[in-house]
Amino acid sequence: MGALAAGVLVTVSAIILGFMKPPESYGILYAGLIFQSIFGMATALIVAPLTQRSELLEKSVSVLGYLSLPLSGAFMMVDWIPQKYRWILMASPSVESVEMIRAGQFGYVAHAHYDIIYTIWINFFLILIGLSLTLRVRKYIYIQ
Q: Is residue 59 packed enough to be buried (19+ CB in 10 Å), middle (13-18) or exposed (0-12)?
């Protein structure tokens, strides 16, 4: 939420000061932000129970987070990648959401690639996995 608030603050300030144009499509921009938030929640629902069961995973979550950052879609557009390799990035719900945000902000100029149906289904599937893991790990949680 802090990163989202900071992004909104910077964007609104840049628009007011004239350094940036307003978004081309608020609907797809908000959809991308909502899907990115849902993906973050799904990831947390998966990672939290796994780290409860594994000390090694608990220690390595931050490293894995930093290593996954280049594949988040934040630093490159899918359109820059050769077409036969795009599927690798498009498998990530984070990339799909970031592409939606780009499309909402820049319109057709950005040449964004995304599939809303895929994003809905993969986020739903990840949330189901996360909820299942959370329910299974409850018996191992001891409050001291």
A: exposed
